[in-house]
Design a protein that fits this description.
The protein is α/β, with parallel strands linked by helices. The chain has a five-stranded parallel sheet with strand order 4-3-2-1-5. The protein is extended and about 80 Å long.
């Protein structure tokens, strides 16, 4: 008995149309200078694109919004595999200062605003910034310890309520 081959269709189904992003929620969990910028830049890009942006700062990420620390964020070369140097070199006195100075120099050359100015710009653009209640309690921080652009100090559950329908990014 002979089998008859079924012809293969050359019709390629159309790609489904993707919904545009309307809302993004960014969780910032690290407070070093090199980890402050990714979330701030993403939130700024979102607002410039007409996308709602919510930022939630938790644990060491709270340094980014703490009045006493916002202008003193550092780059830590210890344990940072992207620094391109052996870990023990990062422990040499002055390496934090050197890494921070180098990054700030590059940021200046690229005309990227300092962290405080980025936070002010985000607030002016309508982004919502929140501190984490649990982290604030653990660190003994109060609402008045944060820059004025922080709308509230909220729980993780409140953050998820505010993030309904958003794409969530964890940094």
């Amino acid at each position: 008995m002979a089998t008859v081959a079924t012809p293969i269709s050359n019709d390629i189904p159309p790609e489904p149309e993707l919904e545009p992003i309307k809302k993004v929620s960014i969780i910032c969990s690290k407070g070093s200078l090199d980890m402050a910028y990714p979330g701030l830049i993403l939130a700024n890009a979102a607002r410039m694109s007409g996308i709602e942006a919510t930022m939630f700062f938790t644990f060491w990420g709270m340094d980014i919004i703490t009045k006493k620390k916002i202008d003193k964020l550092k780059v830590s070369p210890v344990g940072n595999p992207s620094m391109g140097m052996p870990t023990f070199l990062g422990a040499i006195p002055g390496m934090h200062w050197l890494a921070t100075k180098m990054m700030k120099g590059t940021i200046d050359k690229l005309d990227i605003p300092p962290v405080r100015e980025m936070i002010e710009t985000l607030d002016d653009a309508g982004a919502e910034l929140y501190g984490c209640r649990l982290a604030a309690d653990m660190m003994g921080l109060k609402k008045e310890d944060f820059v004025p652009q922080v709308k509230e100090v909220i729980s993780a559950m409140d953050f998820f309520d505010k993030s309904a329908g958003a794409n969530i990014v964890f940094i």
